[in-house]
Amino acid sequence: MKKSSDGLEHRENSKDKQLEQYRVNNYGEKMTTNQALKISNDEFSLKAGVRGPTLMEDLHLREKITHFDHERIPERVVHARGYAAHGEFELYKSMKDYTKAGFLQVPGTKTPIFTRFSNVAGSKGSADTVRDVKGFAIKFYTEEGNYDLVGNNMPVFFIQDAIKFPDLIHAVKPEPHNEIPQASSAHDTFWDFVVSNQESAHMVMWLMSDRAIAKNFRVMDGFGVHTFRLVNEEGIAHFVKFHWKPKLGVHSLVWDEAQKISGKDPDFQRRDLWDSIEKGHFPEWEFGVQMIKEKDEFMFDFDILDATKIWPEETVPVQIFGKLTLNKNVDNVFAETEQVAFHPGNVVPGIDFTNDPLLQGRLFSYLDTQLIRLGGPNFAEIPINRPVCPFHNNQRDGYSRQRIDVGQVSYHNNTLANNTPATSTAAEGGYVHYAEKVEGKVIQARSESFKDHFSQARLFWNSMSGPEKQHIINAFTFEVGKVNSKDIRQRVVDMFVEVDKEMATIIAVDVGVNRPSGEQVPVTASSPALSQENTIYTPQTLTVGVLVGNGFKGTEVLATIRTLMNAGVIVKIVSGKLGTIRSSDNYQVAVDETFLTSAPVLFDALYIVGGNSENEAKFESDITYFINESFKHYKPIGVATTGQRFFKASNAKEGPGIVIDSPKSDFGNTFVKAIAKQRFWTRDIY
């Protein structure tokens, strides 16, 4: 073949023509199934009554979700970037009055668990600290089988019906024409989805809040998201929502800090979890439920089955009954973290489902997903997925079968094996579904009780502190400012005027669209539990970078370090070079990090000691850079007597969170209190 320009052009055109038959543009076309059946409804799954269970005969739901579940090999479609650890769940008090679940009966019972944290949107290779929803999934290895509580660090979700889940994820993933941007919702298709599906309003407020940039896994809430049932031995049921509350409180990064950490250490959160467990600083959460009696199902101004709604804790308090502790890192990330298979349908007697249409779809989707991701139906035989109790059934063969089942019988109702394995009665621990009465026409529709999309978004906004509100505005401005379509930017501010007009107006000005014309909807209700301002503050496991060179005052500095460590603070010595440095009074200290290998965003606070260095100009430049960054991120800064010249050379100013040592001050303890507070939002950083 000739290598002329004409020949090359000819070959390219031939290939282009060959591919033409496979190109499809859906613009302007009618929606069909893959079998070309025209679709009349793509918003609601088929149900028995508008609030009834989803029906398996919904052929469009099954095809749509099945195709979605099989879109990635072998990486998870969502929650791809994850990290996990082993631990145990300890029961504080018996829940016998509410559930017959065996592991919730006797106080003091300890149940082994495996917990996986994750980001929802990004690929496996994305960074930890992007703005995203965090997965929080727990596998309880109980004596009655595995129970999986598969949740997030936010209590609500974007959509109300599982049939919309593929659409949501398609919208938030990198745009298909250029595979950009990675692990970010700051682009056109996501915000087009939001303004076109306004049930997402409440969840978007959470996503734009500090909750979406958790400092680390150890200081974030966990929620079951959906409404489940607990059922006791008498068959009495309660509607419940599950909660995990971190013992260290709920804390977040600031956006500038989060972006810089993504560059300095994209593994920041997984490294934090690994290091914490290795050092014996075991992460802990308390486990509790909100409960509603069945007779009270309809007494609220929202539908308790709506996954875009919370149950305000001031109205329905969380009852704490146990504690989760993570105390062992994985031995092999692939074998455990990547191969673990969670499924909200993995329950034990005493825990049951409701007709939440988002949950109903997940009950199908998760099991279906494992078949393609883990190579067939035998994923339960992978070690991390195996129950701790024996399991027996007539399932056979398939990819990667590991069990060797002996005997000639593999069917139920048999005489050759005395009809074993046999089923169990409820009294013997057999799982019996809650006998809910269901009636209604087979219909694709949404209950009228699901149509309020903004009242709880307003509640969330009204519950935020001043700094939290400003962070939400900043997040909207950044995200919507990345949207190319001016029409979508306008529709965003027109939509969120339903939450708060002042907020929407500020965003409109910042993103270059018309101010919204809607009126402010009066809001008086608030829920203090929603604000991170009302969380736990403790210095334990927070990390302080000690910036120091030769010639420091040993007695002063070492006394302060002892005070910090006695309070549970982790101390890292940072200097110009690795090795040891020597004080003016002949103490030696080993250096943990250099200015080059660390960064101010990786520390919760700084202790400015100073000293001498071979290159004084660079030494001063490095320290003042650390001070400026930490000051800008509202972090506490302690200044030793020898560090004051470095502080004065920086842009930082004395004020909130700045603790300066002096002969008469109780410097160490004052600094510990500042470290515990973590951020000083009243600081003037400009």
Automatic annotation (TrEMBL):
Recorded catalytic activity of this chain's protein: 2 H2O2 = O2 + 2 H2O
Task: Provide the E.C. number(s) assigned to this enzyme.
Answer: 1.11.1.6
Is Iron-sulfur tagged as a keyword? no
Q: Using the record's annotation, list all stretches that form the Catalase core domain.
A: 32-420
Please give the cofactor(s) recorded in the UniProt entry for this protein: heme
* A Pfam family assignment: Catalase
Basic and acidic residues compositional bias: what residue ranges? 1-20
List, alphabetically, the InterPro entries matched. Catalase, Catalase_AS, Catalase_clade2, Catalase_clade2_helical, Catalase_core, Catalase_haem_BS, Catalase_immune_responsive, Catalase_large_C
Keywords, sorted A to Z: Heme, Hydrogen peroxide, Iron, Metal-binding, Oxidoreductase, Peroxidase
Q: Which GO terms describe its molecular function?
A: catalase activity
For this protein, the record's Gene3D superfamilies field holds: 1.20.1370.20, 3.40.50.880, Catalase core domain
PROSITE patterns per UniProt: CATALASE_1, CATALASE_2, CATALASE_3
Where is the stretch described as Disordered?
A: 1-21
Q: Name the PANTHER family on file.
A: CATALASE, CATALASE-B
Quote the function comment for this protein. Decomposes hydrogen peroxide into water and oxygen; serves to protect cells from the toxic effects of hydrogen peroxide.
Q: Which family does it belong to?
A: Belongs to the catalase family. HPII subfamily.
User: Which protein, by its recorded name, is this?
Assistant: Catalase
Species name for this entry?
A: Sporosarcina siberiensis
